[in-house]
Amino acid sequence: MRNARLGEKVWKLVQLPAVVFGIAVAARLGAAFQLLPAKAGPYFYRYNEPARIAWALVGGHGYSSPWPNTPLLPTAQQPPVYPLLVAAIFKCFGVYSLSSLWVAVVLNAIFSALTAVAILHLGRRTFGPLAGTLAAWVWACWLYESVVSIRLWESALSALLLAIGLMFVSELAASLRPSRWLLFGALAAAAALTNATLLAVFLALWGWLWTGHHRDGRSCKRVLLASMATCVLIILPWTIRNYAAFHRLVPIRDNFGLEFWIGNHEGVTSLYDSDFPILNPAEYNRLGEIGFMESKRQIALQFIRQHPQEFLRLSLRRVVLFWTAPDGSPWPWISLLAWLGLILALKRRMAASAPFAIILVVFPLVYYVAHTFSTYRHPMEPEILLSASFAVVSLVETAGKRLTRSS
């Protein structure tokens, strides 16, 4: 009896959002204390584009110069939200200072810990309390997630915004309240201006919402268009700024040509070749940002036209890397479980799992054709862990039922 009561108390405790949040923050700060201050330069500040743009902003040079040894001219290499956030921190606590780095790390730790709470709620709602709790605690305690989330990058914020977006989607699937749809549009804009890849996911989620309401005999046309218009209106000032700076349409960022080229050119051997601006900015300085990005895009397109089979081989390799990197990690198994969990959920007609399928399918597409790195997956890893946890819980429950029958 005592053991049963103790078990109930422990179960209630591990499901408390405050407990999950506290553990997640502690794990991330623990990782930060191991890395700082010794790794402040090589791991956080060196070659960091958001920090470089923040330095230019605080120095009065405007939103410019993402790489060292380049002119202080306007850039759209990064979406604006995270560099502006780092610039605000630099303004208050010092440019490239250890104090600023600690503030940024703590803020990222909070973003990531809030994501753990969102995972808990999403899991309960979609896959059940056991799967949600398991995924939240893996996210909270896993050192890998802790280290990736505290980097001086937008990943932790992007993961939080996407998780919040999923929480909205489940509500909007059954509601036509204009205020909620407008908030979803604002959230989509914030996500896109943080990580442009997320815009494709939100577009697909809008499509799924429209399909669901239409299937149920309801019209969501007005609120859907209002939601999308809200997103466009919030992004528009940044697009206008880019047009004024570059005299061409750049909705959010202009670096796809460079990313496309990194993975698709003659002699691709490593992540960054010699004329990447961090290593050698000469070509970037000579052509300017738009000319440089367009030049790299054309080189990549020519390579694909001349070597379509090689492009297919490289793309398949990127698909594998996206789901399995880094080497020696458990990610191959987690990814396999995530797809298994998604298949099980869809097979059981769990409608709320469809947005998870959208994320797992849509988010990686751009990385399959350009290039990938293990940290690029971070914004969708909460959804991967939730789906994988559902697979684990389902497999354990199935095995338990079989044992019970056999006995």
Give a description of the structure.
The structure is a single chain. By secondary structure, the chain is mainly alpha-helical. The protein is built from 19 helices and no strands. The two termini are 25 Å apart. The chain has a domain of 96 residues. Helix 2 packs antiparallel against helix 6. Helix content is 72%, strand content 0%. The chain is globular, with a radius of gyration of 22 Å.
Keywords:
single chain; 407 residues; mainly alpha; 72% helix; 0% strand; globular
Topology:
Blueprint: H1 2-14, H2 17-35, H3 40-45, H4 49-58, H5 81-93, H6 98-126, H7 129-141, H8 143-149, H9 155-172, H10 178-192, H11 197-215, H12 221-246, H13 256-263, H14 282-306, H15 308-324, H16 331-347, H17 354-362, H18 365-369, H19 381-406
Helix pairs in contact: 2-6, 2-7, 2-8, 4-5, 5-6, 6-7, 6-9, 7-19, 9-10, 9-11, 10-11, 10-12, 11-17, 13-14, 14-15, 16-19
Kindly provide the radius of gyration, computed on alpha-carbon positions and rounded to a whole number of angstroms: 22 Å
Helical content class: over 70%
Give me the strand/helix succession: HHHHHHHHHHHHHHHHHHH
Unreliable spans = none
Number of helices: 19
Strand content: under 5%
- What is the straight-line distance between the termini? 25 Å
Q: How many runs of DSSP E, i.e. beta strands?
A: 0
Task: Report the major sheet.
Answer: none
Described by the principal axes of the CA atoms, the overall outline is globular
Instruction: Report the structural category.
Output: mainly alpha
Mean pLDDT across every amino acid position? 95
